[in-house]
């Protein structure tokens, strides 16, 4: 069917559009006028009513009590008053020029004082043993190869590999031994060995997967070679091949008489020789123990899947404990016959020491259960219900608690509820703190029960096992570091920040040049649990010259909620005003002869050219109205707060609404310190780890392209959860 002709001549379009033209067309197409309609509907509202609306909308994003200074600028957006920058930005300008409440319209001269070497340098540079089969073994048992054919080699290789991987399985879970080993590491290459020790969970999982493969190889080799050879050979011929039948005269490295465990007897009598495949499996010690080992392996493989562990952790843990007990015993019995080998069970020689080390660590945990447990000094709970609540625990430091590094973790047991369950949590207190603190999220049965028992006012009995090594321990040795925490994943970095604040304020020598802490959360009330550290940071200018804190609220946009919509749009429009004034002032600040410390109010995202929306808030406090916090003190518990920290600081802190642009920020940090390596520490989900890994790889490629000597490295360290 022919198309109807145009009534009018079609417009003549240019062959190509400029970016400005495309932006203008896109603005006309995608522009929505919900804000204009809302302003028209609310025309005539008073400033007090507008303030109440915005305060109610802020609660939807987790900001329960915004300061009046922050609300005034947002109210001006809603009431269409004269636009002016936010008070937080004016505070930064006033600090930079030495005049609080600096006027943006007038030209000010930067205050004169001794420049800080670090800040000046920062600002000007910133913005301008494989195992192989032995030949001796092959030649020694040449007759065995002739009788059982080549599959005996596969069976022997699989058996040796299973013994080695069993040793790795037990050693990778001996956390006490790994922590002790971390303290003995040489200073050179310390980060590499820490990374190797920290990936013990990944190594444990990989060892279990390798065990399945080599067990299948071991079973296959015996099924198609050894068992058919036994069934087809004469008894006298078999006795010439069996190592146990040779006694002390056999070709063994040493001889251990285990004849009490031999089944059938050795030398093999004609009446005990297996007649069928089933007899070889169920009527001999190697066959029966091999079947039992296979059953245990299958059960562990099925119950170790992530879905099963999350849904039935109790079943997974109980079965794991049974396997820990029976696996080495069955493995020893499996090789106790000495039919082939070196004269003693191979599992004893390869796995004996790792199993003993692991059993020793379990014995230490058992002793801690029997000894008097440390008292729970204080518990602070945020939330009305147990589900989704946050619990901060302050536990008296146990005796013989050797804790010399930050960011470590410990296992916690609540014996009155689940005596066999031990859950790992990162320690949030610093080295100089008198208590061991934890921040726990109520996302499971055990954590919710902990919250429930704390809410009763009778604090539960807790047992600690630890502390154990973690990757954040090496952060204190770095000169330039970036720490990224998502939600409660910030816990190791709270400990790191606490230690850094204590060391820098005490005047101790420190290698740190620059540290950036990124805290992302969907609920800004979580910032309250670091209020003591934030207030300490705000009190000392020397801390602000080396430590920079970036707070990010990643809450999703609330739909079909008028106050929330008005609040979010007002923040967006006020950020446009603030960005304009900040860019004008930033150039003057950088051109000044004496560059000052950026200060806590400094909007880093805008300084790097970003267009994120910012909201300035007061330093969070547990006394904040509108948020439910319950505090319970145990026997002997007292408040450890410094009276000076109870005074609310006047500075407003910028909170970015949205995720950080790590590609931009990490690259800028590296360019500001071209002669130093950048170490990125992250504790979060796999998606966040992968994003930062790609960022570090991209920055490393750019560093390689610059061809500077020495080559700048971007190293990623992340917490592993297995």
TrEMBL record:
It is found in: Membrane. Coiled coil: none annotated. The keyword Membrane applies. Residues 370-474 form the FAD-binding FR-type domain. The keyword Transferase does not apply. Its main location: membrane. This is FAD-binding FR-type domain-containing protein. It comes from Durusdinium trenchii.
């Amino acid at each position: 069917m022919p198309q109807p002709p145009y009534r009018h001549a079609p417009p003549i379009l240019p062959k190509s559009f400029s970016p400005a033209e495309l932006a203008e067309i896109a603005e006309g197409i995608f522009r929505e006028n919900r804000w204009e309609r809302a302003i028209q509907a609310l025309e005539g509202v008073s400033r007090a009513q507008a303030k109440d609306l915005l305060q109610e909308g802020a609660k939807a994003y987790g900001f329960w009590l915004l300061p009046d200074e922050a609300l005034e600028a947002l109210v001006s957006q809603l009431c269409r008053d004269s636009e002016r920058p936010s008070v937080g930005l004016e505070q930064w300008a006033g600090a930079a020029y030495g005049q609080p409440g600096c006027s943006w319209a007038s030209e000010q001269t930067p205050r004169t004082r001794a420049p800080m070497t670090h800040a000046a340098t920062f600002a000007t540079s910133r913005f301008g043993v494989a195992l192989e089969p032995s030949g001796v073994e092959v030649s020694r048992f040449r007759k065995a190869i002739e009788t059982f054919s080549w599959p005996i080699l596969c069976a022997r290789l699989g058996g040796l590999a299973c013994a080695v991987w069993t040793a790795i399985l037990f050693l990778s879970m001996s956390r006490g031994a790994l922590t002790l080993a971390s303290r003995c590491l040489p200073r050179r290459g310390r980060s590499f060995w820490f990374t190797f020790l920290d990936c013990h969970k990944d190594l444990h999982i990989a060892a279990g997967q390798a065990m399945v493969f080599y067990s299948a190889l071991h079973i296959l080799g015996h099924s198609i070679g050894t068992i058919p050879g036994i069934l087809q050979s004469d008894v006298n011929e078999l006795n010439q091949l069996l190592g146990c039948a040779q006694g002390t005269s056999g070709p063994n490295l040493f001889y251990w008489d285990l004849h009490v465990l031999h089944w059938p007897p050795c030398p093999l009598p004609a009446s005990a020789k297996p007649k069928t495949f089933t007899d070889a499996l169920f009527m001999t010690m190697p066959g029966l123990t091999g079947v039992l080992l296979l059953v245990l392996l299958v059960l562990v493989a099925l119950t170790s899947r992530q879905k099963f562990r999350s849904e039935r952790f109790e079943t997974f843990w109980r079965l794991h404990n049974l396997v820990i007990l029976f696996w080495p015993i069955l493995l020893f019995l499996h090789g106790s016959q000495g039919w082939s080998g070196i004269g003693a069970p191979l599992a004893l020689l390869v796995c004996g020491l790792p199993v003993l080390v692991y059993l020793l660590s379990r014995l230490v945990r058992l002793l801690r259960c029997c000894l008097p447990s440390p008292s729970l000094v204080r518990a602070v709970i945020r939330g009305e219900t147990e589900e989704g609540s946050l619990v901060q625990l302050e536990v008296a430091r146990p005796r013989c608690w050797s804790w010399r590094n930050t960011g470590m973790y410990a296992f916690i047991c609540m014996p009155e509820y689940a005596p066999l369950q031990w859950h790992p949590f990162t320690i949030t207190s610093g080295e100089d703190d008198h208590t061991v603190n934890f921040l726990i999220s109520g996302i499971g049965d055990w954590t919710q029960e902990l919250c429930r028992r704390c809410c009763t006012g009778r604090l539960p009995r807790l047992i600690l096992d630890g502390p154990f090594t973690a990757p954040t321990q090496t952060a204190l040795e770095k000169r330039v570091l970036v720490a990224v925490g998502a939600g409660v994943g910030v816990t190791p970095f709270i400990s790191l920040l606490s230690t850094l604040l204590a060391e820098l304020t005490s005047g101790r020598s420190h290698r740190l040049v620059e540290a950036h802490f990124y805290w992302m959360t969907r609920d800004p009330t979580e910032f309250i649990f670091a209020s003591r550290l934030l207030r300490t940071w705000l009190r000392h200018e020397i801390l602000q010259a080396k430590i920079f804190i970036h707070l990010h609220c990643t809450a999703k946009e609330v739909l079909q909620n008028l106050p929330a919509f008005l609040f979010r749009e007002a923040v967006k429009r006020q950020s446009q005003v603030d960005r304009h004034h900040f860019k004008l002032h930033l150039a003057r600040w950088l051109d000044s002869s004496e560059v000052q410390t950026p200060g806590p109010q400094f909007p880093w995202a805008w300084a790097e050219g970003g267009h994120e929306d910012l909201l300035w808030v007061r330093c969070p406090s547990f006394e904040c109205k509108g948020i439910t916090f319950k505090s319970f003190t145990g026997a002997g518990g007292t408040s450890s707060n410094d009276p000076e920290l109870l005074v609310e600081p006047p500075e407003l802190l910028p909170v970015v609404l949205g995720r950080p642009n790590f590609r931009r920020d990490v690259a800028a940090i590296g360019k500001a310190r071209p002669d130093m390596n950048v170490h990125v520490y992250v504790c979060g989900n796999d998606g966040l780890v992968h994003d930062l890994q790609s960022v570090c790889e991209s920055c490393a490629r750019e560093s390689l392209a610059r061809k500077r000597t020495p080559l700048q490295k971007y190293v990623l360290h992340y917490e592993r959860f297995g």
